[in-house]
Amino acid sequence: MTNYNDPNLDASYEFNSDVNMDFYSDLDVYSNWDVDHNIDVCVDIDGNDATFAIDIQAFGDNTSVELNLLVAVDEGTWSSITASGYAAAD
Q1: What is the 3-state secondary structure (H, E, C) of the chain?
Q2: Residues 29-45: what's their mean pLDDT?
Q3: Which of 50-54, 56-60, 65-69 shows the highest mean pLDDT?
Q4: CA within 20 to 30 Å of 55's CA: 20, 32, 42, 88, which one?
Q5: Residue ranges per domain, the chain?
Q6: DSSP character for 60?
Q7: For residue 1, is pLDDT > 60?
Q8: pLDDT reported for residue 77
Q9: Is the pLDDT of residue 40 over 80?
Q10: By the 8 A CB rule, do 84 and 68 touch?
Q11: Closest Cα partner for 82 from 42, 43, 54?
């Protein structure tokens, strides 16, 4: 007769893992901003002109970047660009 209260159960498990990972990154960053704000629109601009360029950089192992941009135009009255942000590195 089989005794089910004392089963002979082998629940052993052998596992071996070897993980190797190599990563190489060659970072070469170059920025050249030569802003030529030649405005060719059907708007009579007489002495009220604003031009900008944004170049923010952060270098390191752990980086974060954010840019918030708002462009608003009230046709015939005014136009506006608002930019805020950051670039940070550890």
Answers
A1: CCCCCCCCCCCCCCCCCCCCCCCCCCCCCCCCCCCCCCCCCCCCCCCCCCCCCCCCCCCCCCEEEEEEEEEEEECCCEEEEEEEEEEEEC
A2: 66
A3: 65-69
A4: 42
A5: 9-90
A6: S
A7: no
A8: 82
A9: no
A10: yes
A11: 54
